Amino acid sequence: MRKERIVFARGRRVYLRPLDKATDLERCTRWTNDPEVTRYLARCLPMTLLAEENWFDKQVGRENDFPLAICTSKGRHIGNIGLHQVDMRLGVGTTGTLIGEKAFWGKGYGSEAKMLMLAFAFRTLSLRKVYSDVIAFNERSLRYSLGMGHKVVGRRRDHWYREGRYWDDILLELFRADWEPLWAEYEATSRWTKVPYEMPVFER
């Protein structure tokens, strides 16, 4: 008998569901051992299956962390997204997104997953702000964040070591008031107009 999946949030092209160690562990371990996938992540070292299993257990067991699987409308698990370090007193949390299946890069799946996660953060948990960070050479992620209304609020200089040199860490944040118009458009049309932005220039 096929196990019925619990759907956490559903969009036009993707839905979010809880991570399932029984079915997702090996796939996630494959992603975290692919240098192309982990190039932009804080955690870029090889992961054993046991280490990945420990990560699963810790993430799922925390009350202020919400790790979810990103699935296509047809049910294929293509990545993960999380709302982490939620502080209900301050009304803040941080987000992170990983599309592990490279055939789905640059096609908007991560953006829609982020929109659904932001709805959970702002509408369900009533957070007032979410924040994130991006390694300076990850222009795809930076453009995706800026297009969803995030603002660059700072940087940590020479914070990450990649490809033989240090890179700045770009700090971003998004307030609920800046996100609400995008959500209203998405609810009405299943699409949203990207917020106009100018790419910041950083030393390379």
UniProtKB/TrEMBL annotation:
Q: Pfam families given for it?
A: Acetyltransf_3
Q: Which domain of life is it from?
A: Bacteria
**Location of the N-acetyltransferase domain:** 14-173
GO MF entry, a single one = acyltransferase activity, transferring groups other than amino-acyl groups
InterPro entries assigned: Acyl_CoA_acyltransferase (IPR016181), GNAT_dom (IPR000182)
Q: Which SUPFAM superfamilies match?
A: Acyl-CoA N-acyltransferases (Nat) (SSF55729)
What protein am I looking at? N-acetyltransferase domain-containing protein
Instruction: Supply the source organism for this entry.
Output: Candidatus Vogelbacteria bacterium CG10_big_fil_rev_8_21_14_0_10_51_16
